[in-house]
Specification:
Length: 366
């Protein structure tokens, strides 16, 4: 409140200022941008102005005499498995994720008990405009998952999902819906923490740990979260009115949950998330055999799944981008009807996933 810095100018340059008169060196560390030394001024403030940054949300930290810290003039957002400062660089001519003078929904916090994990679990819940005013209307539900290193607050705080839905609904482009954003990490009650120190990504130990977590999360969603949501909110409690989507890790979780439970879900979205955790490390995955053979019969699949949507940024890391493109190609070859959409010029970042949700949500529950 009242902080003048950090700030972004009309050219997309970020100005940062920190008061640290006793420091000898301060470095600005943008995770996806400049990493530069700040300049100490006579009044004890350290300052820097970056080159223009790409539109979107940019995480950063400050390194003061070797100690990494957040900028006290900025909010902290949970990303990269820790809280970090961030700034928003506006995208010219784009306002679909801005707050507007339209009817707005509410975002609530929910705690639900899970016998799967033996714990209380946390979720954020978006209720559409008029939910309170019209006590008889029931709504479809989108379960929307965050990525690895993030948590259930990400889609609201970084992704602005509530504003995206508000604006789509007000424009008549999207059906009003409830959106549930749950904590995406799960471990079964009594299950020990896996020892993964020094184990590379894709190793047998890492794959097993990820699969154990995915299966525990799958059971938590289907056995605890969905029943809680249907009992607590005015949902249309059938498969035709349930969707699930997620970004990156959440996309892989989405495929794990929905394709194993098409009796519960009928709309599926993968945002920068490829086929599934069970495929990690497979050089030539057998897609027709995956998930109990759900892709083997295109006609039967089309009756069960009303929408299968895949999205990726055109400048995402090659491994991620190619994995999703191969999944798209395999689905096309198998005759599985689906939507494939590329976000031009964006990386593995919130600008990609905001665009994904903006395209995906209007296609739901038609």
């Amino acid at each position: 409140w009242g902080a003048e810095y950090p700030r972004v100018d009309g050219a997309g340059r970020v100005q940062v200022r920190l008061k640290a008169p006793e420091a000898t060196k301060v470095r600005l560390n943008f995770w996806s941008g400049p990493k530069v030394d700040m300049v100490k001024q006579a009044d004890g403030f350290w300052t820097i102005t970056t080159p223009p940054l790409a539109p979107g949300l940019h995480y950063y930290t400050l390194i003061v005499d070797g100690v990494e810290m957040n900028d006290s003039g900025s909010h902290a957002f949970f990303g990269g498995s820790k809280h970090a400062s961030a700034v928003e660089v506006p995208e010219a001519g784009v306002d679909y994720y801005d707050i507007k003078d339209v009817p707005r929904g509410q975002v609530r916090e929910a705690w639900y008990p899970s016998k799967v994990t033996g714990t209380w679990r946390h979720a954020m819940v978006y209720l559409p405009p008029q939910y309170e005013a019209d006590a008889k209307t029931r709504y479809p539900v989108l379960y929307l998952q965050h990525g690895g290193g993030e948590d259930e607050t990400g889609w609201i705080r970084q992704g602005r999902a509530n504003f995206i839905l508000d604006n789509l609904i007000a424009a008549g482009r999207s059906r009003p819906m409830i959106v549930v954003m749950a904590y995406g990490y799960a471990r079964r009650a009594g299950q020990p923490v896996p020892a993964l120190t020094g184990k590379p990504f894709g190793s047998p130990e890492m794959r097993k740990a990820m699969q154990d977590m995915a299966q525990a999360f799958e059971d938590d969603v289907t056995q605890a979260l969905v029943p809680f949501v249907d009992a607590t909110y005015r949902t249309i409690a059938d498969r035709d009115h349930r969707a699930m989507a997620g970004l990156s890790m959440g996309g892989m979780q989405t495929f794990q949950v929905t394709l194993n439970h098409h009796d519960i879900f009928s709309h599926i979205g993968g945002f920068s998330g490829a086929g599934g955790l069970q495929m990690i490390g497979d050089q030539k995955p057998d897609w027709k055999a995956a998930y109990g053979g759900v892709f083997a019969d295109p006609a039967a699949f089309a009756k069960k799944v009303h929408l299968l949507w895949l999205g990726v940024g055109t400048v995402e890391p090659e491994r991620m981008r190619e994995g999703i493109r191969k999944f798209h190609a395999a689905l096309t070859e198998a005759g599985i009807q689906h939507v494939y959409w590329e976000s031009p010029g964006t990386d593995h970042e919130w600008q990609t996933w905001r665009r994904n949700l903006h395209d995906f949500a209007p296609r739901l529950f038609k």
